[in-house]
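Design a sequence for this backbone.
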């Protein structure tokens, strides 16, 4: 996949995820400022230019959409928080937020979606 195709797909993934996540009331006014929205969007696209990260997050989406949306949610809130406190390496922190559940790819789906007793 070419870099421009990867960026377009990353942009589409981000937009689709935002439609679901930002409707939640707990988000309040987060991402209502155009500057914050564009900053997070550009950061996501930049991080997704890493083919391994992009592939892993897409695999997570296929495995479990809930975990995928949770990872996007964690990325957005974590990245904005890191920016607010002037963290030195926001990109590394934000990538960690995005990929924090990636270990679920190695756990059988039957265990991940096991009903409570």
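Sequence:
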């Amino acid at each position: 996949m070419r870099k421009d195709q990867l960026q377009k797909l990353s942009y589409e993934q981000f937009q689709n995820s935002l439609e679901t996540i930002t409707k939640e009331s707990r988000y309040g006014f987060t991402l209502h400022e155009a500057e914050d929205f564009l900053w997070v969007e550009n950061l996501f696209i930049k991080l997704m230019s890493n083919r391994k990260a992009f592939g892993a997050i897409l695999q997570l989406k296929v495995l479990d959409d809930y975990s995928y949306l949770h990872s996007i949610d964690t990325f957005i809130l974590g990245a904005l928080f890191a920016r607010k406190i002037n963290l030195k390496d926001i990109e590394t922190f934000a990538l960690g937020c995005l990929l924090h559940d990636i270990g679920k790819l190695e756990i059988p789906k039957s265990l991940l979606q096991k009903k409570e007793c």
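The two ends are 44 Å apart (CA to CA).
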